Amino acid sequence: MRRQFNQDLVVSTPPKVRVAKSGRVYVCRKNLAFQKLLLSWIDKAGDQYCARDLAKRAAVKIKTAHKWVQGHQAGKYSLWPIATYFEPLIEKPRKELYKLLCNTLIEF
Fold it and tell me: I need a labelling partner for 11 at 20 to 30 A (CA). Which of 20, 73, 74, 108 fits?
């Protein structure tokens, strides 16, 4: 024999459907000065530039190197490897290139 339950506990209307709100607000994290600097270096390097070699030197994925060229700023530990990669291609000392990279990040 089944036990009786209280009919007052049964809900007569269905619950309201909640719409999920996106918690993240899009913030543009592209640094145009960083992008212009890298693009100018790539133009000076000409055919010698390769995103694969840059990614290998900085110990990151190739997609990350492509994002840097698109304007996403690199982390502070990646700036020195970027400067060392472009040193022989542009024929400038890497300290000068590193300072230029740091200044673009400070301005952002």
Answer: 20
